[in-house]
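Note on ligand handling. Small-molecule inputs were canonicalized before submission; formal charges were left as drawn, and no protonation-state enumeration was performed. Where a ligand contained multiple stereocentres, the stereochemistry in the source SMILES was retained. For copper (II) ion, this procedure yielded the string shown in the input block below.
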Amino acid sequence: MAGYLAGARAEQPGRDRMTLDRREFLRLGSAAALAATAAGRVSRADVEPRPDYTLRIATGLVELSPEHIVSTTLYNGQFPGPLLRFKEGKRVTIDIHNETNTPELVHWHGQIIPSDIDGTAEEGSPYVPAHGRRRITLLPRPSGFRFYHTHVAAGGDLNRGTYTAQAGPVYIEPRLDPGGYDREVFLVMKEFLPTLSRGGDMASDFLANPARVKSLEDAGENAMRASMASGRPHGYEVGYSLFSINGRMLGHGEPIRVKQGERVLFHVVNGSATEIRSLALPGHRFEVVALDGNPVPKPIEVPVLWLGTAERVSAIVEMKMPGVWVMGDLADDDRAKGMGVVIEYAGRSGKPKWAKPVPYGWDYTIFGKQDQATTPDETIEMIFEKNNAALDGFNEWTINGVAFSMEKMEPMFHLHRGKRYRLKMRNASDDVHPVHLHRHSFELTRIAGKPTSGIIKDVVMLGGYQELEVDFIADNPGRTLFHCHQQLHMDFGFMALFDYV
Ligand SMILES: [Cu+2]
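Structure output:
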């Protein structure tokens, strides 16, 4: 843990005698530097100022435990990737080196940045070529807990995309830090060794309000029955053999050492490619202060956190139950295979204890305001449907009847700059979908019939056969990708492009 936090600054490439550093470059000015190039004294590469950060994409090993070492694609040879601490509005230059044999993309999840550096092919960001490099410059915003991860399509290849270990946390420091905690701990929840399986239902009974919309349920169940009657099996799902927090299986990393009375701010990200995660710490409660890095209107204590793929929760835990505890996922099988971390109070020892928390239903709206959000200028309706096992055994996903085409990459929704849009989403499947909007934050305005306001996010879980509404302002022109963050869903159609100038 300490090493991970200490490794905040990305490694820098080696420099030779001929390289100019940033100060020299600025002093010489570009004309002098180019003259130097013309004279053959230094090459163009030497004239370039050094980046603030360097990310190196390459195959490497993750030691989840002494018995479980996995080979996968990593950032800077480590998992999680280095914690990148940016300052809000302070421009940073990042060099991305791709040492693999396939083109890559680094997506800056949750940041309000231009399409060409957001790191998605659908928005027009260039790939980082195989064995090549790309330099980007970005103005980090908004402040709070963000993260970075690969955005390449994996399809049926479980060695690509977010099935690999290409993920790391980003913290954008605000201009003013309200404090109120003693220390921060970053936790990245992540599974390893994915395999395909048939069927298998995802947990969805964790929602406080599991009520289904009858018309959506009828449509989804009828479609499923028809598919089964035609002789199709259930479409593929992905399962995992090993689970970890910060790249270590439960009991194999350094414990998080705490003192009685300490207030620890946990920044938790679900780095899964496909799964919903939960987190509990016996005898303790989480005061949720931010969702997806954005402060919530009403910080409230809850016994359990639930996070869809790519969601983040920042929560303060007051350490007032001395002992040695397992902080882990509620799923017993997944915790047994590593999804947890030990919390150890000073002066305490012994076997870490786990206790199942009281049943608790997850409800975003308790952290929000109960009043109605601002009226939107326009409402865009979307219905999500599953075409069971339609693509070589994989489920095909559609938005308003259209599966996204990676060949055409055509925008589905044309927006007008400055307008406030409401996305009214209807889920005609029994899966929970963590839907994500790029390059914008949205406000939750209605969840399963319940109005809310003031909660700003970039991923939100839409329950099976439920409805959800979010609002966003079209204030960052360019191509903008909307998709389900479940890798298996997005790769098989569950994406749409917005565009506006
Ligand atoms: Cu989905």
